[in-house]
Design goal:
Number of helices: 10
Largest sheet: none
Oligomer: single chain
Helix content: 55-70%
Low-confidence stretches: 1-6
Shape: globular
Radius of gyration: 19 Å
Number of strands: 0
Distance between the termini: 24 Å
Length: 260
């Protein structure tokens, strides 16, 4: 049964925005190893926020982008992250079938967006997110494999996970740490999730990541003062490359002359 019949779209929109709010919490608290269950507060006056102020997007609009208590401006990044997460979550909901499989992709998108934003700001992919990302995806894909008799796909997915991770580990060693171990750990989940579809999808995810990284890297050299030694976080490219695989895999297969 498809996960998103028309009568569930409204529910998924609300969930997508709620997931986006959770992403903002992860981005703000994970790098500093803060707890995730405490109440949100204003970063300017430290006043605890009321529940109605925490409603994704709507709270920001009702407050007109300012704290209710100290009137400090609320960063536009919060509603933008919530809307971005909503848009990305709707992709697997509308495109894929099967509760377990869709939830695996939603898990990847939610934690993946948080990882991408943290990597952009702090140049690291915390184990606090990469480890549960892999464990939850493995659990959900195993559930799908058992429920739908797809154990052969799960076997391919596990092979894809370790193969892609070993490839990134090789790049890490060859580049003498130019690619971090966080990328190697993230590759485990990407190989698992895309491998559950096909080996071609694993290749598409990697191809997309390196293509995006190359284009952005060259662009930075051309339009800014960046040099070849300028550190560019690769995690966001890995995550975007994976997200795009439902549309890019067919082109990678065609380019490499592969069969499904």
């Amino acid at each position: 049964m498809h996960l998103a019949p028309s009568n569930l779209i409204g529910t998924w929109i609300a969930l997508g925005l709620a997931f986006g709010s959770f992403v903002t919490v992860l981005v703000a608290r994970v790098p500093g190893r803060q707890g995730l269950v405490s109440f949100s507060h204003c970063p300017s006056c430290n006043h605890a926020l009321a529940a109605k102020d925490n409603i994704p997007v709507i709270g920001f609009l009702l407050l007109r982008g300012k704290c209710r208590y100290c009137k400090a401006k609320i960063s536009l990044r919060y509603p933008l992250i919530e809307l971005l997460t909503l848009a990305c979550v709707m992709m697997p909901v509308l495109k894929f079938e099967g509760w377990w499989f869709v939830l695996a992709w939603v898990n990847f998108i939610v934690l993946g967006i948080a990882l991408a934003l943290i990597d952009l700001e702090h140049h690291r992919l915390p184990d606090r997110l990469t480890v549960p990302l892999f464990v939850i995806c493995l659990f959900l894909l195993t559930g799908d494999a058992i429920a739908n008799d797809h154990l052969h796909r799960l076997t391919i997915a596990i092979i894809g996970a370790f193969a892609l991770s070993f490839f990134y580990l090789f790049v890490n060693v060859a580049s003498r740490g130019g690619m971090g171990m966080g990328d190697v750990k993230l590759a485990l989940t990407i190989g698992l999730l895309t491998g559950y579809i096909s080996f071609a999808t694993v290749l598409a995810a990697s191809f997309g990541a390196f293509l995006l990284g190359s284009v952005i890297g060259i662009g930075m050299l051309v339009v800014s003062s960046a040099t070849r030694k300028t550190a560019v976080p690769f995690g966001p490219f890995m995550i975007i490359g994976t997200f795009l695989t439902p549309w890019t895999t067919q082109y990678v297969v065609s380019i490499l002359n592969l069969g499904h």
